[in-house]
């Protein structure tokens, strides 16, 4: 579960509620200064969070280098560019790409291969609609250095809240897996009526 909690108290409460069998990810959405990011990261380590995402502004590569050195929890951030510089300097231990905003399948594949060459996982960001999600999945299935498929859910825990512009979407099965679609192309049917109406992904 990837969470955007507002406080460390919330992180503690969530960990207590779900126990140790659930992997928790903290996405701070670029909220902290360097001192606060380190303090929060130390607390997340105690709570056995799986990774620590976007604690600092994405452009603060020096801050990420220092943070990654001082924390055991893997640090990552969604990147639009400078992938090789972040990797070369050890600023991230997991590579997160924003290819649903730019670059698409070709860029995702290149970044995943670059990360693999340095022994790092590539975990694609998923905020876009169902076509972005299924594009991510196709690349994930073609590489060996990705552990998770990120699927947006609504505030009530329901799947499909970002299924925009298609007649179907991806779902997680009872064992926690997502399966490759079997139809042609990306594998989802376009809903042309929604497209004509200008349907948008909810924010």
Notable characteristics:
alpha/beta, TIM Barrel, 4-stranded parallel beta sheet, 3-stranded parallel beta sheet, 7 helices
Account of the 3D structure:
This protein is of the alpha/beta class. The protein has a single domain (2-149), classed as TIM Barrel. It contains seven helices and seven strands; from the N terminus they run βαβαβαββαβαβαα. The strands form two sheets. It has a four-stranded parallel sheet. A three-stranded parallel sheet has the order 5-6-7, with helices on one face. The protein is globular and about 50 Å long. It starts with a strand and ends in a 6-residue tail after the last helix.
Strand-helix topology:
Layout: E1 2-3, H1 8-18, E2 25-27, H2 34-46, E3 51-53, H3 61-70, E4 75-76, E5 78-79, H4 83-88, E6 94-97, H5 104-117, E7 121-122, H6 130-140, H7 192-197
Parallel strand pairs: 1-2, 2-3, 3-4, 5-6, 6-7
Helix pairs in contact: 5-6
């Amino acid at each position: 579960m990837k969470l955007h909690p507002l406080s460390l108290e919330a992180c503690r409460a969530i960990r207590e509620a779900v126990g140790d069998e659930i992997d928790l990810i903290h996405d701070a959405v670029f909220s902290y200064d360097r001192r606060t990011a380190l303090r929060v990261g130390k607390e997340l380590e105690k709570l056995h969070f799986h990774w620590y995402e976007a604690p600092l502004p994405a452009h603060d590569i020096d801050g990420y280098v220092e943070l990654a050195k001082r924390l055991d929890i893997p640090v990552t951030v969604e990147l639009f560019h400078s992938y090789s510089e972040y990797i070369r300097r050890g600023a991230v231990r997991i590579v997160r790409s924003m290819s649903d905003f730019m670059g698409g399948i070709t860029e995702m594949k290149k970044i995943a291969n670059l990360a693999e060459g340095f022994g790092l996982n590539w975990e694609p960001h998923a905020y876009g609609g169902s076509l972005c999600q299924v594009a991510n999945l196709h690349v994930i299935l073609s590489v060996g250095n990705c552990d998770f498929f990120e699927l947006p859910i609504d505030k009530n825990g329901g799947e499909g809240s970002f299924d925009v512009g298609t007649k179907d979407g991806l779902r997680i099965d009872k064992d926690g897996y997502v399966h490759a679609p079997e139809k042609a192309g990306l594998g989802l049917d376009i809903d042309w009526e929604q497209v004509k109406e200008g349907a948008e992904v909810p924010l």
